[in-house]
Amino acid sequence: MSLFSKFKNEGEKPDAITYELPEGLRVQIVLLWEKGFGPDERFHPGPGMAYREICRILCEEHQIYSLSQVTGEVLPLRESIKAYFHSVDTAKALFVVRVVFNVMEQMLHRKNDSNGDVFYKSRYQSPELIDELNRRFRENNVGYQYVQGRIEKIPQDPEPMPLKERLVAGEPARNLRKIKDMIGGATVTAIHDPYTTTGSLETILKLADMGVNFSSSLRVLGTAKTLSNSTEKKSFLGLLNDINTERKASWQVRIYPATTKPHRRFLILNDGSIVTCGMSLNHIDKDEVLDHEQSGSENAKHDHQLFEDKWKTATPI
User: Fold this and answer.
1) In whole angstroms, what is the distance from residue 192 CA to residue 201 CA?
2) Which residues form the domain of 169?
3) Range list of β-strands (E), the chain
């Protein structure tokens, strides 16, 4: 999911990412840290301790004697930090956010032998408050996030391809589901995968177990290079024979010599459409594209012709 996917109004295009801190977001951030530290009461010393530490760090790092030197007002520490945060530029305001949430992580609900939990009136833990802070950044299309004690800038990259049309490294099980959903209720009649191996057949079986329909006369087209190893070829043929026996099928596999390094990988469906994969079926744990070319499209026609041309001259394995 995109870091900036929440729209202000449903159906509208989101605003461009900004690297300023708008006033409304600053208000939300102040309310968040005040909620986190809890009410500053006489017998609830935690917030006072936190605000003193925040004030000390800000004064030292920004080279001022007191926050009132900037705000022009002499206020209680809690209000001084708030006023300072609202009055400074974005760079200094981001530093305030960093300091406040650093202190929150270090102090909130950290008990000691003499005083116990001095934040006992706060009902929140720092991780959930940090999550909410980052959510506020995203909701306001502001390109920052708080990560491990730092404020990180998020690059304004092009919108990523929707995950339903993308395979992601580290998510092989989810990638299988995405391929299954892309195929839908159609039947796979042919597969072109230059790097067909025993692992490819295992992936096909996994998809079949998930409900994907494969033709009883499925045709698989690979290249000679990947099955040139005698051990791999023996394993491949053994699994293929087992599949045909169990499924009462007649799956065929042919190979052709490749003079250049081939990259085109696709599944042909019985409705004439094509599902293209950016990676081989022998290893689906990669960041790659997944797409569906409708029947009759130029790309679909090209892939149908490519498969049939190669199939005619390919050698049965």
Assistant:
1) 13
2) 163-316
3) 144-147, 150-153, 166-167, 187-192, 213-223, 252-256, 266-269, 274-277, 288-293, 315-316
pTM of the entire predicted model: 0.49
How are beta strands 252-256 and 274-277 bridged, if at all? unpaired
pLDDT in tens, 142-165: 999 998 889 998 877 544 444 446
The model's pLDDT over 193-203, given as tens digits with 9 standing for 90+, comes to 988 888 889 99
Show which of 153, 179, 197 is a domain's final residue.
Answer: 153
According to DSSP, the residues that pair with 252 across neighbouring strands are 219
Q: What is the DSSP string of 224-251?
A: TGGG-SHHHHHHHHHHHHHHHHHHT---
Domain match, 198 and 310 both: yes
Sheet containing 166-167: give its strands across.
Answer: 166-167, 288-293, 274-277, 266-269, 187-192, 213-223, 252-256, 315-316
- C-alpha gyration radius of the chain: 30
